[in-house]
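To: structure desk
From: M.T.
Subject: fold request, one chain
Message: Could you run this one when you get a chance? Sequence is below, nothing fancy, just the single chain.
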Amino acid sequence: MGRGQTGNAPSPAIYAGDLYCEYYIAEAPVPQRGLRHFVPGILLCGTAALAAAFLAGQYAFPVMVLGLLIGLALSFAGQEETVAPGLDLAATRLAQVGIALLGLQVSAAQVTALGWGALAGLLVVMAGTIVVALLTARLVGESRAFGLLAGGATAICGASAAVALYGAMGRNKVDKARFTLTLVGVAVASAIAMTLYPSFAGAIGLTDTQAGFLIGASVHDAAQAIGGGFAFSDEAGANATVTKLARVAMLGPLVALTAIWLADKRDATAADARGRRLPMPWFVAAFLLLAIANSALDIPAQIADHALDLSKALLLLAVVAIAMRSRPQMLLEAGWRTLAPVAAASLTAFALATAATVLLVGQ
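Reply: Done. C-alpha cells follow.
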C-alpha cells in the first residue's frame, strides 16, 4: 500500500513544513497548533533574552554572547515538549523577520559612498574570507556547507549572517552543535577584534578614514564594528559605519547564492514536482526589497531606528532559542575542528583588510 493511501481509495497526500520552509510528505497528519502552544517557549526564551540584555547593559558585554551562554545553560529546559514549539518559532520565523528588517539599514548610497577603490577592496576581503573558510573546513574534514556558514558569518555580519545562512541551507546541511559553536566563535573573535583593532590602527599610524575602513571591514558584529570605529575617533566611527553597512548589504545576495549552491538534486526534483518553492528564501527577497525601498524612498530615520531595534531583539531571541535547543554533549563531540574555519577566516579578514586599507584607502 503506498503512502497516503487507505485501502483502495486514495487519500490526499499530507504535506508538512520543516524548519527551513521546505515541504515533505508526512507519514501522519501534522497537528495544527494554536497560539497557546507557542506561548511557553516564547516566554522562556524571551525571559532569557531580557536577562542577557540587562547583563550586557550592566557589564558592557556583547549581548549575543550572553544570550548564547544563558541559552546553553538552559538547554535542559529546551528539550521539554511544552516549550519546543515556541523555541522553534523564535529560532526560525522570528529570526527570518529580523533578517528581513535589516534591509532598512542599507542603501545604494551607503555602498557607493565608499568609493570604487574601497568598495573593490571590501569585496576582496569578503571573498577571500569565505574562500579561506571553505578551504579550512575541507582541511579539517568538515562539510562545504559548514565552511560557507563560518566564512559567511565572518565576512558579512557575524551572528545575523550566521542565522540567515543557517536558515537558507536546508535540512541536515549543518547540525545545531556546529551552528552554535560558529556563533560562539564569531562572537569571541568579534569581541577581541573590537578591543585590539583600534589600538593596532593607531600604532601603525592610520588616518581616521583608514582606521574606519579597517575596523568596518574586519570586525564581524555590526555593533562592535561601529563601536570600535568610534573608539578610534568620531570620523573613524562614521566611516566604519558606512563600511560595515556595505558588508551587510551583501547579506541578501550571499544567502540567495547559498540556497542555490547547496541545493542538491533531490531538493531540485522535489521542488519541480511541487512547483511551490521560491528561487530564494522569502526573507532574503524581503531584505532586498526593503533595501531597494530604502535606496529609492526617503524613509524617516525614526522608522529605520525602530526596525533596527526590533531586528536586534528578534535575532537575540533566535540565538537564545537555538542555544536552548542545542545539547551540550553534541558541542563537546564537535571538537576544535568546528572553530578552525572561523579562526582562519577571522585572521584572513584582518590581514586582507589591513592590506586593502594601506593600498586603496585614503590615498
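Reply (cont.): Residues 176-203 form the longest helix (28 residues). Let me know if you need anything else for the meeting.
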